Amino acid sequence: MLATAPARARTLDDLFADALRDAERMAPGLLLLAFDGSDEVEADARRLLTTDPGCAFVRFAVHREDGEVVVEVRAPESHPEILEALVVRAMSAGR
User: Fold this and answer.
1) Number of neighbours of residue 16 by Cβ within 10 angstroms
2) Average pLDDT, stretch 44-63?
3) CA distance 2 to 7
4) How far apart are CA 41 and CA 18, in angstroms?
5) Which CATH number fits domain 6-93: 3.30.1050, 2.40.50, 3.90.1070, 2.60.40?
6) Residue 3: pLDDT band by 50, 70, 90 thresholds?
7) Domain residues of the chain, as ranges?
8) Whole-model pTM?
């Protein structure tokens, strides 16, 4: 699952806590995460999310939109718990 190594998990939680603006489910199997639009946030998101070897069937795409860094997370519709776990982690990291 996403960010399985403890150091990587802490770094991901830090990214969520420091830069996450919104997490929105767009459709079954699709989650959009909107982050602060800084270059550092974009680099961290790309490094942490698009290169995680523990997510073989989850796809991440990072792009910029309206001054934000947007991460599209796609998971099989047959496994909604994957996106739910990511939303819970993202939202609880900022609390």
Assistant:
1) 20
2) 80
3) 12
4) 9
5) 3.90.1070
6) very low
7) 6-93
8) 0.84
